[in-house]
Amino acid sequence: xxxxxxPIKMEESTSLILDLIYQLKIxxxxxxxxxxxxxxxxxxxxxxxxxxxxxxxxxxxxxxxxLGILSIDDIFKALDSGYMQELAEKHMSKKLxxxxxxxxxxxxxxYFDKFKYGRFPVVDKNNLLVGMxxxxxxxxxxxxxxxxxxxxxxxxxxxxTPVDAHHIRKMFRIRKYxxxxxxxxxxxxxKLLVERKLDPKDIRRVAVAMYELEINxxxxxxxxxxxxxxxxxxxxxxxKDSAPGIEHPELALQEGYSTANEWIKSLGFGAGMGLANIxxxxxxxxxxxxxxxGTTVRAVIHFKRKEEKSHDH
Amino acid sequence: xxxxQLIKALDCEVVHRRKETGVKDLKHFVVSDxxxxxxxxxxxxxxxxxxxxxxxxxxxxxxxxxxxxIVVNGKAVTADMKVSAKELDVTxxxxxxxxxxxxxxxxxxxxxE
Lengths: 313, 113
Prior knowledge:
heterodimer; A: alpha+beta; 5-stranded antiparallel beta sheet; 10 strands; B: alpha/beta; 5-stranded mixed beta sheet; 5 helices; 5 strands; about 40% helix; globular
């Protein structure tokens, strides 16, 4: 390898990678099972140790305290100059650059770029040696985390793949207080329905129910999901959040009852009409809520059939 | 009433304009700063008149299939609003007049029809 740096450029990375390298800590990826030697060990002994355990750098430790590192380069020098019987403490590198186990992975990556060492010792808060980290550890840890995340995304994708051309199933994640994006899911579904040339009144009912639910999650919950299933004759919208739940479910349905604060009201919401309005536009509506357990609201809207429409006139 | 008449009468700044809006006869106006109240409206909505200068005004207009939004009181239109208006193709107008003055003007124009 010509360069021990890790080719992750912060400004060019995807948000997933950036998330991961800040979420993962050094202790999540480092090697804990260490091959160590004492300062009184001979270089010859350390050479054997390196060969047996297949490592290229060994921390020299006394009573859990890291004193230095002896690398394979030091062994090469000793072989050249013939002092293999001398002790580790005399030849180990004492200028140590250490990382702390609770630092984010991003730190370790920048250290590999900056110092060009093959490995860094990792210490805990009390400065005791707890592990070593190499660029291989970072690659493996990152790869495992990416794999996990991709598996989760694939699962989500499977849920959103339509069963047939007339069947839509989509799940949206709604974040708390994210008013910049709240409503976006509803606008997208509405566009889909317009493209399908559904009755404008039905489109309006689905869009209104969905929008109210979307805003409700952003305003009142700690975040949740909105799932929409649409087939040829009905739409089913399910809003699910995990917390905090509704304290007075019977009051929440009353028009004008609101627990929204002034700030929410200044954004145009929290008039206490949401749930009542969803019920108004739905053919079937139910909701379950318990304080601390979150809320689930389900609204079903049946589309008018073409024959029924002609009877209306 | 056509949109161009309105833009002129209310001295509107046009932030975004849907292409085909010129020919449409505007009949149904809803005035509200509470988006929940707008969503409660049963009938058609052609234009939403509001002092709410956030993306939610644009999103709400799209949900009720309004062709546009008039932001009153000379409120600043945010960058997010411009993006949403373009994305959802909702006409976005801005006027220095108050809701009251806008309504009065529209009422007056309607009387002349």
